[in-house]
Amino acid sequence: MTSATTQAHAPTPSEPGQLKVIQDATCTFCGCVCDDIDLTVKDDHIIEAKRACVLGKAWFLNHSIEDRPSCLVEGQPAMLDEGYDRAAQILTQGKYPIIYGLSDSPCEAQRVAVSIADWIKGTIDTTTSVCHGPSGMAFQGVGEVTCSLGEVANRCDLIMFWGSNPAESHPRHFTRYSLMPKGMFLPNGRKDRTCVIVDVRKTKSAKAADIFIQIKPKKDFEALWTLRALAKGVDLDPDQVQRETGVEYSVWVDLMERMKGCKYGVIFFGMGLTMTRGKHANSEAILALTRDMNAFTRFAAKPNRGHGNVTGADNVVSWRTGYPFGVNHSRGYPRFNPGEYTTSDTLANREADCAMTIACDPLANFSQPAREHLAAIPFIALDTKETPTTRAATVAFTVATYGINTGGTVYRMDDVPIPLRPAFPSPHPSDYDVLTAIEQRVKRILGVQG
Amino acid sequence: MNRETFILIPGRTTDQGCGVSEGKFRDKYQKEVRALRVAPGDMARLGLAEGDLVRLTGEEGQSVEVGITAAKKDELPEGLLFIAYGEISSRLMTGDTHGSGIPTSKGMEVTMELVQKASVAT
Ligand code: SF4
């Protein structure tokens, strides 16, 4: 991959005072990756983001060119070359280097990050490990019956959400992809669909449901296993079902009848399932239930992915290493072991001795032991904005924002690649540029030709 | 109030999501990630009021102090607490991922105790 890839998508600067309209721009704030946004730009500010939701508007309209140096070394402004050199030294001198983040970078940059991990025999992990990592493990154990969001819009008459609150996390999910669209086989849109939401609390999304099922906290696995048993015709004790799940047996029987009777069902599941007790066992249960349902009708399951290109990170790391996240290269070939090579563990267990974080904020989001260790080792941070992580980094790069200032490719949550159409250029380098420069220096230090 | 055990659900909210774009050091984000939602029934039973400061303690003794706000009428069943993802919720996670790569970040068992009444603080 050469810089021609990013150059091809480079935005043109707008004339001072002139309005510029970018049609069908792509919002990368959440995994819906809506690519129908019309942006109006004036003097390097987005003044309108037509069709964007409240989160998308906040993403576009608050964007401004960061008035910060592109590079800081130990908190002091530095030339980019100095930063690249220092970053390459840190990464090549470590015994257990880790690279983490990537879910808000385009695939082209992710690809370079994997190469660096490979050269330095490091560990590469993405924010998937702290969101749908358990689902990634479950895909390997159970398999995935999947579909595109286009199929959902055109065919699905039973839409289920489990442990997911799209009204607040993916605001256009209902209107653009799942509940409201008038599809090829659903000419009346919402009226042709049934929506079921399962959650432990009555979220804002619950209002959109025809049937809301409030289960006991930490009992997702038991609830899913109840449905699996009902699908197979296994006799269950109604009292025990109610005791375990907090929901009457008859509600589950009714839901199973609807699931068997629909033409095409889909379950979107969220971190309510993966972050709670049971984790990958919960994801396995939902995937196994989905597989079971295909004996009766067409059924698919999709994780509702959070960040704009977290799905791309899974894809890129998979196609480069064979595994989606938590990949260790210390033996010269990739090994996958969540719980050992995942960043929460390599930091909390005090194993990593240097790090590079890309478009993520572990010093705000990680457990206390993991934060303390990251703050104690040399690390490089790339981010578009100042964060607790960039403030503490040995080398911090301010990078241009993907989708607004730089082009490239991202994957929507259903694994469909979407091109970015940036609005205006940034004086800061892209993460692709920074990673490419670091990779060149790493190769030079390691004596790699080419 | 005596110390009581609750289940804490951290999650996304609209204001937290917008706050990420507007700036994590800005008021909107900071306010949103520092407000613990408590079921009105629990507040009445425990004699808690809007703005009271409570201490949450996790299973390994990690603790945070946070102000409370009443959850919408039927959002939370009693015994459940909610907070937007952020600084406070992260501090309550343990380093152990149980071999999964992800610490338990939802459905965390915490104890809650009163630190200071809002009426005293103001
Ligand atoms: S739903 Fe997500 S991708 Fe679409 S406009 Fe809103 S934040 Fe952006």
Features:
heterodimer; A: 450 residues; alpha/beta; Dimethylsulfoxide Reductase, domain 2; 3 domains; nine-stranded mixed β-sheet; five-stranded parallel β-sheet; B: alpha/beta; Barwin-like endoglucanases; six-stranded mixed barrel; globular; binds iron/sulfur cluster
Description:
The complex is a heterodimer of chains A (450) and B (122). Chain A has 450 residues and is α/β, with parallel strands linked by helices. Chain A folds into 3 domains: 3-61, no CATH class; 71-130 and 308-446, Rossmann fold, CATH 3.40.50; 133-303, Dimethylsulfoxide Reductase, domain 2 (3-Layer(aba) Sandwich). Chain A contains 19 helices and 19 strands. In chain A, the strands form 4 sheets. In chain A, strands 5-4-17-16-15-6-7-13-14 form a 9-stranded mixed β-sheet. In chain A, strands 10-9-8-11-12 form a 5-stranded parallel β-sheet. Chain A has a 3-stranded antiparallel β-sheet with strand order 1-2-3. Chain B has 122 residues and is an alpha/beta fold. Chain B has a single domain, classed as Barwin-like endoglucanases, CATH 2.40.40.20. Helices cover 26% and strands 32% of the residues of chain B. Chain B is built from 5 helices and 6 strands, in the order E-H-H-E-H-E-E-E-H-E-H. Chain B has helices spanning 14-22, 27-33, 40-46, 87-91, 118-121; strands spanning 4-11, 35-38, 53-57, 63-70, 80-84, 108-116. A 6-stranded mixed beta barrel of chain B has the order 1-5-2-4-3-6. The radius of gyration of chain B is 14 Å and the shape is globular. At the A-B interface, helix 2, helix 5, helix 12, helix 15 and helix 17 of A face strand 1, helix 1 and helix 4 of B. Residues 27, 29-30, 32-34, 52-53, 55-56, 170-172 of chain A line the site of iron/sulfur cluster.
